[in-house]
Design goal:
Length: 287
């Protein structure tokens, strides 16, 4: 089963065109939603939440069309944005009093235990919390109303590596219960290399790839070599070519890498490198 399924989603926003997008967030997996700033990730998440009405296409939420009752399932969705959408002068305790009536499955005891685990003082105002603590507060809210699906929109932007690593552990714990899933939007590929099972890759509103992470990683090689080895034919194959004083580097489909000469080095590419080179090349080589 898919927690979320997009079928031909499209939305015009001024000069920017999103879609048509067709991809799924499968139940039981962490799906990394990757792309540079301005690729359309936030617009897509807002459409899933019913906050951004598409011009065409269909969104299914837990198997139900969003327009025909899917929005009634919003209590099963936890949302963590790049910044809290709460009143900054509230405390964590006040936040519970405001939010609890809106969720049938709100668990106050669990909320209190999460605040204690994350070292969050319930009497402290939200505006006094660090960036990392605000992310943990949003997670505490999401985990306290029985969310089955987490939508994370750039939650690790600006966080230190230790906090980002801790977030990965928290998501791993969340996924231990059957029937849960995560859509993790970020432009930091290294955050997803460890924890993501599937990848959805957007560039300039277009879908470049949707599928298992290992399929994307296995589809490309990072190639480097000296200036003399960069023939016209090779130049045409390389994605995101970057030249420097003594040589070059770029990305090449794995199938083409098999035919390279011995003077060239082709090695596995990281998710971050695939993201950067595809972004530089602005070519839809992934399928």
């Amino acid at each position: 089963m898919n927690s979320v399924e997009l079928r031909g989603l499209a939305k015009a926003q001024g000069a920017f065109q999103l879609g048509e997008l067709s991809f799924a967030v499968p139940e039981g997996y962490i799906t990394g939603f990757i792309g540079p700033n301005g690729a359309g990730k936030t617009s897509t998440i807002k459409a899933i939440l019913g906050l951004n009405r598409p011009d065409s296409g269909e969104i299914l939420l837990f198997g139900e069309p969003l327009e025909q009752g899917g929005q009634s399932r919003n209590g099963e969705i936890g949302v963590v944005m790049d910044a809290p959408f709460f009143v900054e002068d509230w405390t964590a305790a006040e936040l519970q009093r405001v939010l609890a009536p809106f969720y049938r499955a709100w668990d106050g005891a669990h909320y209190a235990s999460l605040l204690a685990r994350f070292g969050l003082d319930p009497r402290k105002k939200i505006k006094e919390l660090s960036r990392g603590m605000k992310v943990k507060l949003m997670l505490s809210v999401a985990f306290s109303h029985g969310a089955r699906l987490l939508l994370l929109d750039e939650p690790t932007s600006g966080l230190d590596p230790l906090t980002r690593d801790e977030l990965g552990e928290i998501l791993g714990e969340f996924m231990q219960e059957e029937g849960r899933s995560v859509l993790f939007s970020t432009h930091i590929g290294s955050d997803l290399e460890r924890i993501a099972d599937h990848i959805v890759f957007l560039l300039e509103g277009r879908l470049l790839f949707s599928g298992p992470k290992e399929e994307l990683l296995g589809g490309y090689r990072r190639v480097t070599g000296g200036v003399k080895a960069l023939s016209r034919a090779l130049r045409a194959q390389i994605i995101g070519l970057r030249e420097h004083g003594v040589g070059f580097e770029g990305l090449i489909p794995s199938g083409a890498a098999k035919d390279l000469g011995g003077e060239l080095l082709a090695e596995p590419a990281s998710l971050e490198e695939i993201f950067v080179f595809l972004g530089r090349g602005k070519q839809g080589h992934a399928e």
